[in-house]
Amino acid sequence: MVDVNKATIGGHSDAIRALVKLLAEGDSRARKEAITALYSLCFYDDNKKRAVMAGTVPLLVGGLINSAGVPDDTLERPLGVLNMLATVVEGRTAIGNHWGIMGTLVRLLKQGTSRSREHAVAILSSLCCNSKQRATEAREAGALEHCRQLLDDGTMRSK
User: Fold this and answer.
1) 18: exposed, middle or buried (Cβ count in 10 Å: 0-12, 13-18, 19+)
2) Collapsed DSSP state (helix, strand, coil) of residue 31
3) Residue 158 domain flag
4) How far apart are CA 159 and CA 152, in angstroms?
5) Domain residue limits at 73
6) For residue 1, is pLDDT > 70?
7) Fewest CB atoms less than 10 Å from the CB: which of 34, 65, 112, 153?
8) What is the pLDDT of residue 88?
9) U-box domain: from which residue to which, for each copy (predicted)?
10) Is residue 23 one of the residues assigned to a domain?
């Protein structure tokens, strides 16, 4: 999708809200397509803020927290969207305010696919570099141990 199109689509007052509604109420295929569309639209910075304001974060974080037993590869795209949203203040705040997110990200560092681990470490980095409280929470959840392990056996991207 061309950047101009991302701006135009995201700027339409109901576009991102409709995708979030689909994410909340759609069947599994509709949710997957909504996540893919949000992922693409969120490459444009203004759309990240719109996605946060539309309620994307609680849906994605809730899905991750309740993801035990879900195939790891299905978590990669939602983590990718959260990774992008974590690059803006509004996104970091919304993600970090969810109870259980640090423990979930640490679990994904330990058990996720290589791509999921890359996204999880990037989200943790965004949260922790901008908040001492979040850094303490991550440390208490065991993030340091798993980040050290990524240095040894992770992908170049996760390092």
Assistant:
1) middle
2) helix
3) no
4) 9
5) 3-153
6) no
7) 153
8) 97
9) 9-145
10) yes
Structure token digits, residue 126: 């965004």
SS3 string, 144-159, reads HHHHHHHHHHCCCCCC
CATH number at residue 75: 1.25.10.10
Assigned domain for 102 exists: yes
Residues 6+ positions from 116 with CB-CB distance below 8 Å:
72, 73, 75, 76, 79, 108
Structure tokens at 68: 């035990």
Which CB contacts under 8 angstroms, 24+ apart, belong to 38-44? 38/81, 39/77, 39/80, 39/81, 39/84, 40/1, 40/6, 41/1, 41/6, 41/9, 41/10, 41/15, 41/16, 42/81, 42/84, 42/85, 43/3, 43/6, 43/84, 44/3, 44/6, 44/7, 44/10
Query: How many domains, the chain?
Result: 1
Convert the pLDDT of each residue in 17-62 to its tens digit: 999 999 999 998 999 999 999 999 999 889 999 999 999 999 999 9
